[in-house]
Amino acid sequence: MEQWNVMYDEQNLDVEVAEPVTKPFEGNGEVNVYELPRVEKMACIVHNGPFSTISKTCDTLFEWMKQNNYLADGPIREIYHKGEWATNNPDEYITEMQIPIK
């Protein structure tokens, strides 16, 4: 299905990294600081395993959205619950993917 690749443009890739912080601080020319907007409806799925197989999980999420008549209403958010900082085994990685929907 690979529908999620429609949003990917290798030449003009816009990436944001969200990191929770414990206290407010000002951004600078390289770092912007802002609160993620509240999302009313979010389709979510948890991927267990290496990043090399995450596209199959994403395809499953988009297929569920299609079958339930939902459209993406914003960029995909990924939350890395367990990764290389916690284990040397990629099969133990846990990644949550969230997509705002309408």
TrEMBL record:
**Top-level division of the source organism's lineage:** Bacteria
A matching Pfam family: GyrI-like
Q: Which residues form a coiled coil?
A: none
Q: What InterPro entries does its record include?
A: GyrI-like, Reg_factor_effector_dom_sf
Q: Where is the GyrI-like small molecule binding domain?
A: 9-102
What protein am I looking at? Effector-binding domain-containing protein
- Lineage start: Bacteria, Bacillati, Bacillota, Bacilli, Bacillales
